[in-house]
Structure to design on (80 residues):
């Protein structure tokens, strides 16, 4: 809530198809979007509550207009 790192957003150019999935430590999807402009604000997918502090894994799937495609995975840490 201090305006610094309040959201987590994937950025890119020439994106035709996009999917972002964020998982908790048990592998449950807590956030999913196909809109590259939608940030994750560390809430659950229904938006009913914020997730607890911890490490969350993500998977990004992207297809570009020129036929290129890739997947990237990693982790993001939530600390309030």
């Amino acid at each position: 809530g201090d305006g610094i790192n309040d959201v987590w957003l994937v950025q890119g150019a020439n994106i035709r198809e996009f999917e972002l999935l964020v998982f908790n430590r048990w592998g449950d999807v807590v956030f999913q979007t196909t809109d590259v402009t939608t940030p994750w604000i560390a809430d659950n997918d229904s938006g009913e509550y914020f997730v607890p502090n911890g490490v969350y894994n993500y998977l990004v799937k992207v297809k570009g207009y020129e036929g290129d495609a890739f997947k990237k995975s990693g982790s993001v840490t939530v600390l309030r």
